[in-house]
Amino acid sequence: DxxxxxxxxxATRATATMAPATQRACGAARAVSTKxxxxxxxxxxxxxxxxxxxxxxxxxxxxxxxxxRGDEQARDAVADSAASxxxxxxxxxxxxxxxxxxxxxxxxxxxxxxxxxxxxKSILSMRRWAFNTFGDENAIQFLAMATPxxxxxxxxxxxFADDYVEVPGGSNKNNYANVPLITExxxxxxxxxxxxxxxxxxxxxxxxTSLKAIGVQFIGPTAPVMSVLGDKIAANILAQTAKVPxxxxxxxxxxxxxxxxxxxxxEIFNKAMVxxxxxxxxxxxxxxxxxxxxxxxxxxxxxxxxxxxxxxLRTNFEQVKAEVPGSPMFMMQLCTQARHLExxxxxxxxxxxxxxxxxxxxxxxxxQKIFEEGPPTIAKPEIFREMEKAAQRLTxxxxxxxxxxxxxxxxxxxxxxxxxxxxxRLQVEHPVTEGITGVNLPATQLQVAMGIPLERxxxxxxxxxxxxETTDSIDFMEEDxxxxxxxxxxxxxxxxxxxxxFKPTSGGIxxxxxxxxPNVWGYFSVGANGGxxxxxxxxFGHIFASGKTRNEARKALVLALKGMVVRGEIRxxxxxxxxxxxTGEFKDNTIDTSWLDGLIAKKEIAxxxxxxxxxxxxALFRAFNMAKAExxxxxxxxxxxQVSVQGVDKMIRFPVEITYQDTKYSFEVTRPGPxxxxxxxxxxxxxxxxxxxxxxxxxxxxxGGEQHEVEGLEEPLGxxxxxxxxxxxxxxxFDPSELRTDxxxxxxxFLQDDGAEVVAGKPFAEVEAMKMVMxxxxxxxxxxxxxxxxxxxxxxxxxxxxxxxxxxxxxxKISTFSGALRIPADESTP
Length: 830
Hints:
- By secondary structure, this protein is an alpha+beta fold.
- The chain has 26 helices and 41 strands.
């Protein structure tokens, strides 16, 4: 009762200074029973604090909705509220801010229709803007959506939000990409706006359409514009119509005027599509191999494959179709020796479009970005300004509203650039632009959604060297901005295994250790005791480094990555990223979009360590944990009063086996002391080590004449060990007639019928993991017998199929090691 009384009192005080029309609207809203809602929330398990917050939020929603009676009345209501006393609340300060800058609507409560990095970064950025502007980080309320998997993974964005609504788990079609569900939540919870982020439903025109029908603002472009630009086929036709240079593709020469609904005429659109494998082959032969097959609704590395020949194209057609079901597909020529450059654009509802410089995202693997940097120094300033203006013209002509990215392929040797696509959403790498421009992009999106003109947004005025309190206009097409003399490089932190072609991994995370500095910062979507589940995006972190020059920024990023620690069941590519940043090609900025895939194919970037040191480290790790388990069991027996000394010998002498690089190593382990382990080879070579366990579980040991740090995790496929910061997998020995998966996810299909023959080195199945479709490769040849069905949920190590080996005599054999280990003599006694 006290809490309800407090809520009513707050609502009364808030409406006292409102315009009469607004007061009447609020009075009608209060007729809704607060008591019923409060008790209903408690029954649903919502905390009392959350109930009070929701009641107050409902009051704010009514106030905001009362200002939506047409633009003229809305401005009057906003202005009336803004004229309150100097001691006005942050809610009044927000209304005053919008009114003073020519805005049309006040947004107080936002539904974040996303998860992971997108949700985390958006909430942090908009809260920072609210605090810097109003002195109150809670001036905007944030409602999150959370699946059971996100809740179990201890996702950070849930903690950052004011409240959350639990939604169904599994594939994103059940939750973050489910437009009817998002719309229903927005209506039921009384939000003012929905922020879509990237991925999921962010490029689905049905979302802004559905939200408009219920009076909720979509923070992004209108549905017709999203449809024509979000679809890569339509965007390319539009670019050709605007005479923007295009790469040879399946829609060469097609031009179109937009329909009244703002879309490309269907008959023209269909001419650019490829719908069958045979159409793909015909288009590829006309364009010329190598080609790119793309799903027009794909993105983030999904729904895109490169094919060097017809055989690859036929296989890739099915993979692209499976990754983005139902999406139209098109084909374009692969542009070689190209850089991937982007222009960050923002448009408002008054026809203005601004270019906030851009980014170079040329370091990619499988068309998924690894590093992003800005400004794109590879392009001459005058050439990049042409690219910016072309992007501005394109967005102005179609009335684009919100943040977007125009992507180009750029040839440094010829200074030629070609339109690639326009993403009608914010991109994950947008903090690079924030770092070089000082413009908070999620906050800018929010202000544009409130109807504030771009030239009235303070950070944009500062970017153009204007006083933030003045109102003089800015010609964004003709005037040049003031770019700070700084360079920013970003690295994506993903749960991927670089030793296996960056295959996604999932599992728990014990801790993430990252040290920020004045010129290095980062965002993470998971924290201690969290995790990355199989339905999540593989990216869970993003690190940024700045410097006066590109090389200064690169060095700062290298140091930050070297000091980063991620411990848990997942694999990360952090060590790999450090090696990439230290290559001569990256230092000299001579890379292109195919550079990293070439390194991966040649395996030129790899950890370096003597295999014998790896084997000894693994043997000591297993020996320590075997002894620890025996000691624990022995202690438990004594605590139960069982005084037998049986089992003591297992604590001081036992065998250990390690298999690495098709060689089996057998050791006998003895313990001369509680912290001393001695491993002995069959030939009598002894390696003695002193080991101690740190509180975080890592082993610190002295062997081979040096101090080493060892961590490990026994997985279904073997031991994953981190030795002195480098990760190694020592696989278990499996029957060669078994085909097992090394990823967790879903089995999409087998590529051969049950009973058919599979060939060693060729794909035998396709699986979906972390939103990506990937092939599994057969290790031996033979007749296959399926052990799982298509659609089955699988975990790493699961048996998918068995083989009747074609020629058992040719199966790779495991040899037994004999001889001396290459360990320094001062720690090794023969």
